[in-house]
Amino acid sequence: MLHTPSILLCASDHEQLRLRLSLASSPPRPNGMLATLQTELSRAVVVPDEDLSPAVVRIGSQVRVQDLQSGEVESYTVALPEQADPDQGRISVLAPLGLAVLGNAIGDEFDWAMPGGNRHLRILAVA
Q: Are strands 90-92 and 44-47 parallel, antiparallel or unpaired?
């Protein structure tokens, strides 16, 4: 499946990210990451925490992603910014790759702009 027009977010993740966005943008500062986060939150379908499928990436999910251009497979845990530690395999939900996978499910394919260029990704597994 190619990038869908909406993503699924559980209510608690949506609320945490909405709050972080409102705190970070007051006073307003131009910031590409904040604009991307706002876009993602605006296209999200929000569901009660207990109704979110375990196949959907949320904060705290361990995810395995394949770059469909290079074939490279990466595994990491999506974490809150203060818990991110790349050496431990935890990436921030607010990093480009964290925002890219959030709300997508196993089997989803999508394009995402990364600092090193556009990537075409597929979610292989979520735990």
A: unpaired
State how far the Cα of 3 lies from the Cα of 10, in Å rounded to an integer.
19
Q: How confident is the model at residue 20 (pLDDT cuts 50, 70, 90)?
A: confident
pTM, entire model? 0.86
What residues contact 71, with CB distance under 8 A and at least 6 apart? none
Selection from 98, 93, 71, 104 nearest residue 1 by Cα: 104
Alpha carbon separation from 124 to 31, 41, 49, 89 (Å, rounded): 31, 23, 22, 17
Confidence band (pLDDT; 50, 70, 90) for 109? very high
Residue type, 18: R
Correct CATH for 7-126 of 3.90.180.10, 3.30.70.100, 3.40.50.720, 3.10.50.30: 3.10.50.30
Distance CA 40, CA 14 (A): 10
Single-letter residue type at 111: D
CB hemisphere CA count around 39 (13 angstroms): 10
Contact 84, 92 (CB under 8 A): yes
